Amino acid sequence: MRPIDDPGHRAGRPPDALEHPRDAAQWFARMHSGEVTEEERRAFAAWRAADPEHDRRYGKLARLWDAASSVPESRLRAMAADPAAPPKSLSSRRRFGLGLAAVCTLAVTAGALRQAGWLEASPQYAAELETRKGERRRVPLPDGSTLDLNSDTRVTLRLCDDQRLLVLHCGEVFLDVAPDASRPFVVDAGVGQAAATGTRFDVWRDADAMRVTVESGSVQVASGRWWRRSVRELAANQQIVARAGQMPERIQRVNAAEVAAWQRGKVVFNNVPLASVVHEMNRYLAYPARLAGTETGKYRVSGVFSVDDPDAMIDALPSIAPVHVRRLPDGGVVIAAAAENL
């Protein structure tokens, strides 16, 4: 991903000039915030007149927003709100973060509108992809990217002239993104978005959480409440988890190859709670396993198992943790501490 340019360091430019191509989204958000000063209006007019490309990009966003008139403007205002009035020396990284949040929001809006047929523009490629429990699937894309879908996953995909958008409705997907700096690949996972221009990364989504793990390259992850939007940049072997209504957790150092071992038909547990193991196994089991008692879920477990034989994972548990397993007539499984009666 190309370095972030600080327009304040350009000769002959005012220190607070907005020059990055993504600034069309930032200007649009600001001009619709209801709190625009006369100085900002003049700066906006000058920016728009400075380059035909600026005017074209802004006009495109304006047409998109007109088509999305049913989307509350308060959502955009919340993103653009600036009660503390950042100083003129606003850093390029912060400026970039605000712009990325706007880009992600409008990208997701555009994808939703196109999916619903509200916009006439046709994507170059569109697909609805899904896998059943226990199924994995690899999908090559026309832009040279590759998707790997894990078990019980559903995605909506749109490749357009100026963006690549994937909505992860549930499950997990690994992306090998073909480089294209002019067309970011944005993954919307509900509580946040991940954007990349050419990298390999894994995105997992649960009911109220998302997890992003980078194998190579870099990925920007935007999440959090609209009025406290957080943008983090992840490098290789880094991971972040974001949950609905919360600020994202700290960036963690991980073994990305272990996280994405499911691509090779394996799942790796390295001293993790049994509750997490059962949660992961239930993604592959035809019938769910459950724990008898909360204390049972606190046992720590390590091991490498085949996702193609999830029942073998269940059978192996008594050999790696002080538990026993009972299979129910309906196919379900109960896992309890060895000292307890099933």
What features would you describe in this structure?
The protein is of the alpha+beta class. It has 3 domains: 7-116, no CATH class; 125-257, Sandwich (Jelly Rolls), CATH 2.60.120.1440; 265-337, 3-Layer(bab) Sandwich (Phage tail protein beta-alpha-beta fold), CATH 3.55.50. Helices cover 27% and strands 30% of the residues. It is built from 8 helices and 18 strands. It has helices at 23-31, 38-50, 52-67, 73-80, 92-116, 256-259, 274-281, 310-320, and strands at residues 125-130, 137-140, 146-149, 154-159, 164-176, 185-188, 192-196, 200-205, 209-216, 219-223, 230-234, 238-243, 252-253, 266-273, 289-292, 300-306, 323-327, 333-337. The strands form 3 sheets. Strands 1, 2, 3, 4, 5, 6, 7, 8, 9, 10, 11, 12 and 13 form a 13-stranded mixed β-sheet that branches. A hairpin with a 5-residue loop joins strand 2 and strand 3 (146-149). The chain is elongated. The relative contact order is 0.08. The model is unreliable at 1-22, 68-100 and 112-120 (pLDDT under 50).
Keywords:
single chain, alpha+beta, Jelly Rolls, 8 helices, 27% helix, elongated, disordered N terminus
